[in-house]
Structures are given as structure tokens and as C-alpha cells.
Amino acid sequence: MKVLNVNKLKLNGMKIKQEKLENHLKSNISDIVTKTIDVMNSQSENEDTKALRYNKGKNRHDLLHPQAIEDLVKVLTIGANKYADRNWEMGMSWSSVLASLKRHLNEFEKSKDYDAESGLLHIAHVAANAHFLNAYYYLYPQGDDRPKRWLELPRIGLDIDEVLADWLNPWREKFNITNVPNSWYFDREIRHRFEALRDRNELDDFYLSLKPLIDAKDLPFEPHCYITSRPIATETTIKWLDHHGFPARPVFTVNVGESKVDVAKKAGVEIFIDDSFDNFRDFNKNKIFCYLYDKPHNRRYDVGHMRIKSLHDLPILK
After folding, report:
1. Range(s) of the domain holding residue 110
2. Which of 137, 161, 175, 277 qualifies as a cystine partner to 167, CB 3.0-4.6 A?
3. What is the CATH number of the domain that holds 298?
4. Domain match, 168 and 275 both
5. Measured between alpha carbons, how far is 315 from 154 in angstroms, rounded to an integer?
């Protein structure tokens, strides 16, 4: 009986080993097949030789057309003979290269194939100039003189309420104003309500509780300053801006009877953005360009391109 049990154990051990072997083969069968296919492919690529080469994932220079390359080389050769070997590699303004490219492309678009001076295809000159520009990313980046609007951004001032902060909806909710205002002058009691909130020490809390209309990280530029006519201390507005992560730029508060225009001029603002049509009009009448930030209460005015629906719509940023 003991011998029989030992034999059973041996048989079970063999079965376990066989199962492990089968599982190992199954888990590796896909790798074996893949490697076999790769070898077959490499052999088919090298039918005349016994050596193996793996070209998968490498740049395919063999896809270049030899005659087109020859035409490009002819243009470079003419340049070398006319100026000096590799003269173009010394660098020139990108705009001058682009101008040459466009001249040849213009002739090509007019169905004129050959350049009168070189006798070569205009499109070969286009390719040569494109080659220069491509190479200049590595050889002469300082020659990039293309216009860049971000180098000359104007000083932009921002209103806060209804541009950065959602003021109107909480105000309507607080005082049960159900209609969506189609005019900025929608609440005859607004001054009395401001005073009542101030008397109850609730005015600052109301302004601090406002939600931003735009996430500060999505602001497409850094404002030169903020100018607001909120009936609260400037420090409270700064606290709200800082809490929501807006750029720490100067904040100016104008009181009743004062003008945002005067403050903007002193601050050096070149462009302002406001949702109030009255402010929009005053800025533009006083030679400070102002965009009207689109809201239901100002849509009765057709101001053309001077209306924007988002800070991302500013043409100077495009």
C-alpha cells in the first residue's frame, strides 16, 4: 500500500509539471508567434542576404523622391556658386526667406513653372526656402522675426462684477427679482438695499460669497489693473480676487459720481473691458478703447466687433 501511494504521488507530480509546462507554453505562444513573424518579415526585406535588419519604427528616408531631391540640390548648388558654400547656414531673417518662398509660390500658382534666372522649377525654389526655414529652427532661431502679438500686448484693465464675478444672479435671488434684466437699471431700490446690507454688516459677506465667472487659471492674459464701482472697501475686493486666485494686480474703486475713465488714464490702461454700456461709451468717447462684455442687460446696443462674449474672444490674443 505504501508503494502504491508513492507511485500515485509521482504520477500527480508529473501531472503538475505537465500542467505548468502547458501553461508556460500558452502564456508565451503569442510572443513566439510575434517573434517568428518579425523574423519572417526581416527575411523578406533581406531576401538576397542572410543578415537580419529590423527597420520598424525608423525614419524612412527611402520614401524621398530622388528627382525632387535632385532639384532641391540644384537650387542649393546655384546658391553656393553665387554666394558661398553653406552661405545660407549663416542665417538671415525668417521673413526674408518667407518672402522669397512666397514669390516663387505665387509664380507657381499662376502656372508658371520655371524661374527665369535659374531655369529651375519655381516649386524647387519653394522647397529650398522651406528647407532653410525648417533648418533655421536648429541653426538660426534668433532670425525669427515673425509678428508675435504676445510681445506687444496692450495694458488691459478689467471690470469685476459681471466680467469676473457673478453678481447679478445672487442679487436677484437675494431680493426675489424674477425677471432677467434687459437693462442695467433694473432695480429702483438698489441704493437702499446696499445701505440696508451695510447697516446689517452683510454687504462685505455678500460680495465675498460671489462665485467667479471664469476660473483664474483660464484667464488668457494678466490684467494691468482692476477698476470697479463696488460699494465696498478695496480691501474686500482684493480679498475676493486673492481667494479665487486672480493675478495680484492693482485694484481701484471708484465712488458714486467718479469716473472709471480718469482712473484708467492715470493707471495707463490702453484697453478696458466692462459690461456697463455707460462705462463702455465713456471709455470710447475719451479715447480709451473699451470692449462691451456681452450680457442680457446690454444687448439692445449693436456695437459690432466691440462686443465680446468671453475674455478668450479678444482679437489681440488670436
Report:
1. 64-145
2. 161
3. 3.40.50.1000
4. yes
5. 12
